[in-house]
Amino acid sequence: MTDRHYIIQCASAQMPSTCWGRYRRIAVLEVEPGIERVSMISERARGCIRVVRTWERLHCGKTERDAYSRAWREAEELIEQLKAGAATS
């Protein structure tokens, strides 16, 4: 059985020029062992095996209740579930 490695990576979101503020995207990526960061959120990136899930166009606010912070917590929970599922398989 191969050991699976997952990371959370964020990037700027593509937004119309009429939108003010900071918008980001978050992805959970399955990567090769030893990889801490890939160049882009894509399966074509070197070291990336697959994109498990993405959250798009998340507003970065000033509190921990903003969309970006909530999605980051969801991504951390998803990684814990994936690791727990791989451990039982």
Would you kindly provide a written description of the structure presented here, covering whatever features stand out?
The model has no long low-confidence stretch (mean pLDDT 93). The N and C termini lie close together (9 Å). The chain has one helix at residues 67-88; strands at 5-12, 23-31, 48-59. The chain contains one helix and three strands; from the N terminus they run βββα. It has one domain (5-88). With 89 residues, it is of the alpha+beta class. The longest helix has 22 residues, at 67-88. It is flat. It has a three-stranded antiparallel sheet with strand order 1-2-3, with helices on one face.
Q: Spatial order of the strands in the main sheet?
A: 1-2-3
The multimeric state of the shown protein is single chain
Q: Tell me the span between the first and last alpha carbons.
A: 9 Å
Q: Which word captures the global form?
A: flat
**How many structurally independent domains?**
1
Count of separate DSSP helical elements: 1
Percent range for helical residues? 10-25%
Beta-strand level of the residues, as a percent range? 25-35%
Structural class: alpha+beta
Give the C-alpha Rg. Answer: 14 Å
Major beta sheet summary: 3 strands, antiparallel
Q: Roughly what is the average pLDDT, rounded to an integer? A: 93
